[in-house]
Amino acid sequence: MSSNQPLISVTDLRKVFPAPRGTKAEDVVAVDGVSFDLHADECLAIVGESGSGKTTVARMIVGLETVTSGAVTVEGKDRTAAPRHLRDRRERARQVQYVFQDPYSSLNGRQTIGNVILSNLSLHATDRPGRTELQRHAQEILDAVGLPRRFADRLPRELSGGQRQRVAIARALAADPQVVVLDEAVAALDVSIQAQILNLLSDIKAERKVSYLFISHDLAVVNQISDRMIVMENGKVVDQGDTAALLAHPTHPYTRALRAAVPGPGWRPVRREKLAS
Ligand SMILES: Nc1ncnc2c1ncn2[C@@H]1O[C@H](COP(=O)(O)OP(=O)(O)OP(=O)(O)O)[C@@H](O)[C@H]1O
């Protein structure tokens, strides 16, 4: 890969969910001509209100949703078509890992934390490591996400929401991915725990060669973590740029409305219905 080739390139991406047969409902155009690049060592945020199409873009990138038209490439390789072999599917999963909003439902309740990490480690290992080597690596990953090693024997239900999200991040890191897609990954957490997880993500990004695609409706969070952001409204990209600059001087009316809706010092409140105008 040349140094300036994007890690992920999305071109004119479109997703239409057909209306259920036999109903008078209309097709839903969830994503409508979206294009952007994600570069190495970058955190790119996708922001927008609920229903703007953020998750559908992410799901198409990781292959959880088919693409209606347009293209997704990862390191220059086409990802639009379904993988033909298990080998291709694994390779795709290794490169781009997904962390969901709700770690409780994304973790197997009967699998210990240690086994969650070990199974992703052995699935994506490029050589054939022995059990001892895998266990040593799993402990290193627990250290990296700030969880005590004794947690390896625990089940997800024995952990707090923040600890479970650390496990979800650990599971993603076990694949040694180039990109982690974080889909509302801190939205379910208390503000103080959110801050801890955001700090953890920043530390991991500084230490490992990993890029983030950070999906959020929360501009305060996006401001803390991302380098660049794109703003989606009704399936389209309506604004994009350097996060700090865009939030300091939002020019697009939708970005201004989103920003004004964020409560807290320095943010002027705006009534919700104004966002629709
Ligand atoms: N499987 C599906 N079938 C039909 N419509 C869908 C499906 N998934 C998403 N949609 C619709 O596509 C649009 C975009 O949804 P999407 O979840 O991508 O938005 P979002 O910005 O991620 O919102 P949220 O943060 O609430 O998840 C919405 O109108 C949604 O109802």
UniProtKB/TrEMBL annotation:
SMART domains: AAA
Ranges of residues in domain ABC transporter: 8-259
Gene Ontology biological process terms, A to Z: transmembrane transport
Gene3D superfamilies in the record: P-loop containing nucleotide triphosphate hydrolases (3.40.50.300)
Keywords: ATP-binding, Nucleotide-binding, Transport
Keyword Cytoplasm appears in the UniProt entry: no
Domain of life where this protein originates: Bacteria
UniProt GO molecular function: ATP binding; ATP hydrolysis activity
UniProt-listed InterPro entries: AAA+_ATPase, ABC_transp_ATP-bind, ABC_transporter-like_ATP-bd, ABC_transporter-like_CS, P-loop_NTPase
Keyword Nucleotide-binding appears in the UniProt entry: yes
Family from the record: Belongs to the ABC transporter superfamily.
Protein name as catalogued: ABC transporter ATP-binding protein
Native organism: Leucobacter viscericola
